[in-house]
Write a sequence for this structure.
């Protein structure tokens, strides 16, 4: 390939990558906005952080906290109890996080029950995503 | 000689020649004399869902009634909620049951009575295979972390090979 072709290809790839990030951000914003609307009050990253980092006694004994598996370093990988790596939770480390509503709902459904012994409220989900998206 | 024992157990015969002939006729997915091979999961749904948290264990490692019992209680899956929608759950159950350890296999016969065994690592077959070879402490090594992490020691596990490493 000629240098100009390579330059053009690189440029196109760069634009596509930017577009991918932009659409990911759009999907994430939509999800968070829908939780905010359902909650009916402003979301709080601080509340989300406290919920995520906290230890809870109402859920299943093996999973007292989100950080049992996700660890307290959200920019690094977590680890399931079965030993498998979990992709980072921080959006800065994993830009595709929280862009698929069905995926987000599926894992909130499972993990809120595991850790808290109940469903999370829209406010809690919105708080958590607000915090994790800021990391 | 665990492999030979297993073959002989399956056969109930003492002839090594007969054992080898039988092993050659075993369907894929059954532990064979060729080297502790279990056909890996081929179904994309099963792979995607099961492997989200752990290796997608070969269906041939548990009998059908174990898979049925396990898939009937996903909200309490070894201490975690692994719930799935009904359609996905039915798809996965059907695959696991269809490819489960055959009724006459050593694995299935070893857990044929009593409550269904849900953990592969609690089947007499698994225990026997690891006893004396693997120190219990090895499973606590941070690099292993769990008896569910086959690939930590069996490097070929994802491809179906579980020979002694």
């Amino acid at each position: 390939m000629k240098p100009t072709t390579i330059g053009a290809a690189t440029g196109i790839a760069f634009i596509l990558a930017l577009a991918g990030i932009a659409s990911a951000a759009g999907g994430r914003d939509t999800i968070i906005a829908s939780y905010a609307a359902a909650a009916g009050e402003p979301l709080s990253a601080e509340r989300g952080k406290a919920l995520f980092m906290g230890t809870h006694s109402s859920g299943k004994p093996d999973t007292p906290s989100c950080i049992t598996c996700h660890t307290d370093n959200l920019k690094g990988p977590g680890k399931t109890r079965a030993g498998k790596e979990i992709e980072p939770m921080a959006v800065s480390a994993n830009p595709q996080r929280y862009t698929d509503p069905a995926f987000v709902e599926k894992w909130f459904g499972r993990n809120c029950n595991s850790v808290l012994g109940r469903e999370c409220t829209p406010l809690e989900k919105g708080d958590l995503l607000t915090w994790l998206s800021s990391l | 000689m665990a492999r030979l024992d297993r073959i002989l157990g399956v056969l109930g015969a003492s002839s090594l020649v007969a054992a080898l002939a039988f092993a050659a006729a075993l369907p894929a997915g059954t532990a064979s004399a060729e080297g502790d091979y279990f056909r890996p999961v081929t179904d994309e749904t099963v792979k995607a869902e099961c492997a989200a948290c752990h290796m997608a264990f070969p269906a041939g490692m548990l009998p059908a009634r174990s898979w049925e019992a396990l898939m009937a209680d996903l909200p309490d899956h070894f201490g975690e909620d692994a719930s799935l929608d009904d359609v996905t759950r039915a798809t996965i159950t059907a695959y696991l049951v269809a490819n489960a350890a055959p009724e006459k296999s050593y694995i299935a016969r070893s857990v044929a009575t009593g409550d269904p065994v849900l953990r592969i690592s609690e089947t007499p077959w698994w225990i026997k295979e690891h006893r004396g070879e693997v120190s219990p402490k090895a499973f606590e090594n941070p690099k292993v972390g769990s008896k569910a992490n086959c690939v930590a020691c069996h490097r070929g596990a994802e491809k179906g090979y579980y020979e002694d490493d």
